[in-house]
Amino acid sequence: MSFSKILTDWYSVNKRSLPWRETQNPYFIWLSEIILQQTQVKQGLPYYEAFTKHFPTVFDLAKADESEVLKLWQGLGYYSRARNLHFTAKYIVNDLNGVFPNTYKGLLTLKGVGDYTASAIASICFNEVSAVVDGNVYRVLSRYFGIDTPINSTKGIKVFKALAQELIDTKAPATFNQAIMEFGATQCKPKNPDCMFCPFQESCIAYNKGKVDALPVKLKKLKVKQRYFNFLVFLSEDKQTVLEKREGKGIWQNLYQFPLIETDKNMEYDDFLKLIKEDSSLKSKTFELRQYNDVPKVHKLSHQHLNTTFWIVSIDSVENGIPFENITQYPVPILIGKFIEGFEVF
After folding, report:
1. How many Cβ atoms are within 10 Å of 36's Cβ, its own excluded?
2. Disulfide-capable partner of 288 in 54, 168, 250, 314 (CB 3.0 to 4.6 Å)?
3. Annotated active-site residue in 33, 128, 244, 344
4. What's the pLDDT band for 101 if we cut at 50, 70, 90?
5. Among this protein's residues, is 268 annotated catalytic?
6. Quick one: pLDDT at residue 38?
């Protein structure tokens, strides 16, 4: 029995019931694929349901304000996905009359859509024979065929794409693509894969050579940069605070945050108090400073760790303030959101 046949037979019995598997509407498939980039199904599902409820069509998404989209996205991280999602929705509505491209090559022209997403939409919605290759697919193919070429190398990307394209069921590309992704997500997992009940057990090279934990191979990441963030949480007597919108490029572009002072190390109380007394917004003003978290919280991103301390600044009044109770209306990075959830204004 062929690899494709074994895989799709397994999928017919073991697939999870997910809302985006009940449709071929390219808007819903595109939305689900963008949400599921860098995100597990369990975490992404509530966001998918929220987006489809708030924006049932691409036209609804296109006419929304970016801040509304970012607020709904809050907590998923990688906010460029949300900005690209909104940009592409407007492009599809304004330039393509609301109609998605119906080919792999056409879909690749959309901002935020790469090889994997284009292949998924093309196969699921338009039955194009275009194989998907994501982390799950890399893992399945690397282990089954015993391939130790690094999956994040130029050679590896080409090798695995060609292999997936060779294996795909040309008569049912959508089913094959969804099956191999599901198999990697639930059976051939990164850790503790269910090898004892795997339909490929007899022919899997990694299993038979004891190399399951060694595959796939990935080149080492760049050194993680340490950064030190100090957020000033202003709190006036009438419970007003200050939020600033992040401008320019960056992962938090157009999100809101408390005023930020970045330092080259974690700050002790006395040193930080001396530092902010020289800040233009606090110079010559009377205020009380309190360190909210004794130990900096470390927020881990792909290439940097943010060592974060929140400092409460009690002050008579603030300029351009907003009621503290209203800050949940603004889209903020997840580390700011978690602080807001746990902070009580006395």
Report:
1. 22
2. 314
3. 33
4. very high
5. no
6. 83
